[in-house]
Design goal:
- There is one protein chain.
- With about 575 residues, the chain is α/β, with parallel strands linked by helices.
- It has 4 domains: about 120 residues, Helix Hairpins (Orthogonal Bundle); about 110 residues, Rossmann fold (3-Layer(aba) Sandwich); about 110 residues, 3-Layer(aba) Sandwich (Rossmann fold); about 90 residues, Alpha-Beta Plaits (2-Layer Sandwich).
- Helix content is about 45%, strand content about 20%.
- It has a 6-stranded parallel sheet with strand order 3-2-1-4-5-6, sandwiched between helices. It has a 6-stranded parallel sheet with strand order 14-13-12-15-16-17, with helices on both faces. A 5-stranded antiparallel sheet has the order 7-8-11-9-10.
- Strand 4, helix 8 and strand 5 form a beta-alpha-beta unit.
- Helix 1 crosses helix 2 and helix 2 runs antiparallel to helix 4.
- The two termini are about 45 Å apart.
Amino acid sequence: MKLFLLQILFFIKNKKAKKNIYLLARFVTFLILTITLYSILFHLIMVYEGRNFSWITGFYWTLTVMSTLGFGDITFSTDLGLLFTLLVLISGVVLLLIMLPFTFIQFFWAPWLEAQSQTRIPRSLPENSHNHVILTSFDSLTRNLVEKLKKHHYEYCFVAGDQQTASEIQDAGYKIVFGEVDDPRTYKNIQAGQAALIVATSDDLMNTNISFTIREVSSTVPIACSADKEHSLDILNYSGNTHVFQFMSMLGKNMAEKTFPVRAPHIIGTFEELTIAEIPVRDTGLTGKSLAESRLRNKVGITVIGILEKGKILPPAPQRKLEITNILIIAGSRKEIDNAGNTLLRPSGQTVADPAVLILGGGRVGKAAADVFKEKKVPYMVVEKRPNISTNNDRHIQGDAADINILKGAGIDNAGAVIITPHDDAMNIYLSFYCRQLRSDIQIISRATEERTVSKLFRAGADFVGSSASMGASAIMDLLKPSESSFFSEALNVFMVRVPESFIDKTLSDIGLREKTDCSLLGIKNSGKFVTNPGPDTSFSDNDELILAGSLQAEEKFRQKYME
């Protein structure tokens, strides 16, 4: 009953709905007048023929003829009567069988369905809403971010001003509020001033519009937005955004730094005094050894906190054998990380082929990767199909990367790595499989737009898959929990907790932390002092704060076992 009343109110208050009702009423009035006129003419012609019928009979005859039912129990005998019957029949087909259904659907049924949908989709949040996250676009990045928000118990809502889009988002199981993203009233209705963060991931023009709109409502709420173009950074920062990210450039640099010619630890972030980095096993000479045999803690003073294998984070068990496709995720002080790089990633002494890396795609991701290689003086070659993208220099080839002649001309036979950067996931799967067939030993690093494509790319032959959605969601999530938790890869996060009571006066070896929770202890903080990579004999005191690393599942296991 309440929903029905809301829909009635929609028709009363909505200007478009009221106009539709007015137009429908005019047509119905015209139809009633036409039926009445035909009934009067029916009587006059029947009198002309010498017969007399009641007024009810006149309306009965008119409606049966106009609706083409035509029972035939009442007919005219003169030509005038027959011509009148044809007129009533033809006008009935037009008015009742064509125009009436169309007019009813257009001006009543469709608006009524819209009213049902709009009353089903909320247009505001409760006034006590706070510390929630507002998302102004529905895309792969924000969908990935929502999964992380749910795991860390953050409330969120999408905002959409298009009825169909809003319904699709709601039907997909997400929280949605109906409202235009460039209308200040929308942000007042969703308590934007009390939000933890507002995320804008549309194009640069729309993000600027959204930012100025939000600033009319609140001058303090943090805004995180994406920037497509370099020259948009100043404009987006000026419009009041707190954090501006170039996710495509970040992805390109990330992919470039994972290739074997860039022989240095790939720094993926910092947490307190800790530095988190990645080292490909293929560059270390550790292939075939177990973690225990590598003795990395004793040799270089770092802790292996995870092993990345085809997108999955593996616990760093001491007996786990290292494979050439593994990537070690290590933690330590910056000095310890640099020492690990100098010790494990010594120059091979071999001449680097030209090109050392093949970049398939010269868009934003490919250009960012090329800039890294140019800075580090690593020879590369870009293959780009679009003529307006290629720069026509000696490091660019225009052509289709799916053409074997183009690939061979670009140097795939000699390259040690290939980076696949198109926006089309289907194309990336194809190219990953194709390159793997051409070269079983080449390092393949591919881009994924949708999260569901990551596993397919690994099966197609990719050694590493970079997802802008996952990377961007992790970067935005870091803004929400900067001092408690940080996300450094698709499957690893570092978090800080107070020491559980059950740990006090016990040593790390007594607790068996890694065996029970798959979490690694990276450091202990106490009264301003910080100890990195504590050994197994380290004991815990009452005021300690622990810095731990593991997957989201490992963190959840730790909190359930020791914090609840």
